[in-house]
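About this split. The held-out portion is used to measure sequence recovery: a designer receives only the structure tokens and must propose an amino acid at every position. Recovery is the fraction of positions where the proposal matches the reference. Here is one held-out target exactly as it appears in the evaluation file.
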């Protein structure tokens, strides 16, 4: 997986649409089933890229906590920080 990640070096919004990335930021999945519930994440994309994104979501959740209140200021801040985290790490440009 890591070799593919380094070789492909694709942008997160190329792998998943903005809609998928926003949905991922809102629900912040912690397992395969939750990741597959994200709009635009199917079996193929999960098998190819899902674990990389899931690792980053789990790492982010550990650092910033996970809240179910998507309207709270903390949740909005988390959404912003998570989207930056995904964009700036994991071998993606």
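Reference sequence for scoring:
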């Amino acid at each position: 997986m890591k070799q593919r990640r380094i070789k492909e070096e694709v942008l997160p919004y190329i792998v998943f649409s903005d809609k998928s990335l926003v949905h991922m930021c809102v629900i912040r999945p912690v397992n395969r089933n939750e990741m597959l519930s994200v709009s635009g994440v199917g079996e193929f994309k999960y098998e190819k890229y899902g674990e990389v994104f899931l690792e980053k979501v789990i790492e982010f959740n550990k650092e910033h906590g996970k809240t179910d209140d998507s309207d709270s200021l903390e949740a909005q801040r988390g959404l912003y920080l998570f989207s930056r985290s995904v964009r700036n790490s994991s071998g993606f440009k």
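Annotator remark: Residues 1-7 have pLDDT under 50 and may be disordered.
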